[in-house]
Amino acid sequence: MLTTCIYTDLNVNGGLYGSPVFLSHPHFHRADPNLTKNFTGLHPERDFKYYVNLHPTFGFAISARKMMQVNVQVQKVKEISQVDMFEDGMLLPIAYVEAVLDDKSIPQDIVDIIYLASFTVPSIKLALQYGSLLTAIITMILLILMIRRKSSPKVLPAKLLRSN
């Protein structure tokens, strides 16, 4: 039995209680060509498109696509004659899985929250930053004007000056 993944992308038997399960690209794409010699209909030369579109600020996936093939390693057992037709140690594809996260399938409530967090909150933050800076500048100017006004000599009306 294989204990390390030499032919395919990922050996998952450690997480499945020692079961001989292996994950690979569909049709054993980018794997050892010997894996496909016993099968018809597998086309490993096909280019499988994997992608993940991440939100630029928060880093969570907005859309993604991943395809994989689940394979089981055949082990000959005397009591089970059904596996006699397979070579011992052969990887047998048992499932093809395609996981797609489409940005059009995200609920509108979530889209609104993402929009709010992406555009509205930063706009409010920017407005508060520049608004507080402008308020501070206006306050400083008014304080300077008030201080200058209090410290400047008061001019008495001419009528009061003549009576002295």
Automatic annotation (TrEMBL):
Subcellular location(s) of the protein: Cell membrane; Membrane, Caveola
Spans through the membrane: 127-147
InterPro entries with a match to the protein in the record: CD36_fam
Cellular component, GO, one term: caveola
One Gene Ontology MF term: scavenger receptor activity
The keyword Disulfide bond is assigned to this record: yes
Family per record: Belongs to the CD36 family.
Designated name of the protein: Scavenger receptor class B member 1
Protein encoded by which gene: LOC114340060
